[in-house]
Fold:
Amino acid sequence: MPRSRPVSARLFALGALALVAAAAAYLVFARGDSPPGPRGALQDYLVAWNRGDDRGAGALTDRPRTATAALRANRTGLDGARVHATIANVEEHGDRASAAVRVRWTVPSIGDYGYRTTIALRRQDGDWRIAWRPTAIHPRLTNADRRLGTVRAAPPRAPIQGRDGTPLVTERSVVRVGIDRASVRDIDATATALASVLDLNATDLASAAKRAGPKQFVEALTLRAADYQPLAARLAAIQGVQSIHSTAQLAPSRSFARALLGAVAPATAEQISKSNGKIGVGDEVGQWGLEARYQDRLAGTPSRRIVIREGGEPIATLLEHPGKNGQSLRTTLDRDVQQAAETALGDAKGNAALVAVQPSSGDILAVANRPTDATYNRAIDGRYPPGSTFKVVSTTALLRDGLKTTDTVACPKTITVGGKLFRNFEGEAAGNVPFAVDFAQSCNTAFVSLANRVSPDAMTRAARDFGLGRTKASQVPPGRDAVARAAMMIGQDRILASPLAMAGVAATVADGRWREPRLLSSDPHEAGSPLGSGENATLRSLMRQVVTSGTGSALAGVPGEVAGKTGTAEYGGGDPPPTHAWFIAFRGDLAIAVLVEKGRSGAEVAAPIAARFFNAL
Structure:
């Protein structure tokens, strides 16, 4: 029979076991395997919140789903802001604890916003957890219906003004017409009917409506109030069509300097993403022209606020950055002159332009383009061979070489230079006549025959006195050979100019010196050297004869003393090649250029437009 162990031995063994257990407990605690205290639990929560893990932070609270939803809603309300929260202090009271926390949000387009809040904790089943309350996010979120948010308010857009300071582009009544997805029954049928009334593409409209949300308004077209009225009854009869009365930044009429002034419309997703926070959803933004080029100036800067929302509505402002009103843009455009230009071009469907300048200042008074739907400003940005309107420049080079307008210069039907055949438009031939008649009748062969009288770079030098070749609006490179120099005499070869640049040629003759065109009243004045008084008087007389007895006779009945020059400029290939029609002119302190792409001739097509312009003033 075994002997029992002594009591002292048993006590020693029990003590040893206790020491081992205590040592094990110590090692567990030392390795961090025990539940964290309130500070540790709070730190874990803040680390998750700071790194944008709202779900992870919510899981460390006693109400995970509610907390996660609130954390996400507030971050979204602050436009996806980053948060940085740190512990100020923690006070523990049994199974409860309270912590003061420093919070700093970095809000897009607003910046940093900081404050302190209090976060409660409680011990549950041995673990410390965040005792969830909305005030854990912000002390003023005292109920579940409140959340942080931002408010962005754009100031009224400043107007584009005319030379007299009155607005050209300003708020005007419009009607936005489109499809109401919530009420439309047959998208294809509604799109087809609406497109028929508004002259739109039905397939594109139906496709846009099908991509839209079930309650979205799909805009088809914005109409001026005056344009909407004649269509109101037909539009109202189409099932699913909605008309919303609103306002928009608009010029006096749809065609009024449209390509130049531009248009304003809701910002696109691309414009918003490229703006670095300057542009927000729903902002009205310049789409082209001056409205786009001077977007920041005209739009100003919006005010931005961090707010508390309740039920979706702001009830308190926590931080505010005031905005800045837009500044008006004062142009040199004259409303009456611009309207005359629009009247002169009328409803032309082809590509055409008319630009008017004030010779004494260089101020641009009117810029009109066709077609009206196009946004390309060909009057200023277009580059074309100027054809016979350039004969004003080549005549200047000849006068400086000693040519007199009374000199006889033959005008045959054709002339050949270096193997290239030059001809007059429709094969006219004036015979042996004074140079003044050659100019008035725009005789190509006469000018070509005089090409060898001037030096290779004489035309380039003379052109600069009329502003040509000074800017990217025009180029007059020296002729590379005899054929090129012959073509330059009649505005061909590599010569290119915009309608604005050619209006500057007429303005130079009118005022006696070239002045750099300017579109904004704040732009500086720059002038070239004056023409010689004798040559200037001669040019004025020659251009007057174009109207009284030459190719510009379409203006013979126009009031006042109009002087001008026609141009029929060849481009591309073909036999004969196609032509653009030109006319430049001046009357008093007003000079213009008219261009009609693919026009038959300046005399037949462009000159009558110039006549309508002057008669409209």
Notes: Residues 440 and 549 are 7 Å apart (CA to CA). The first helix runs from residue 7 to 30.
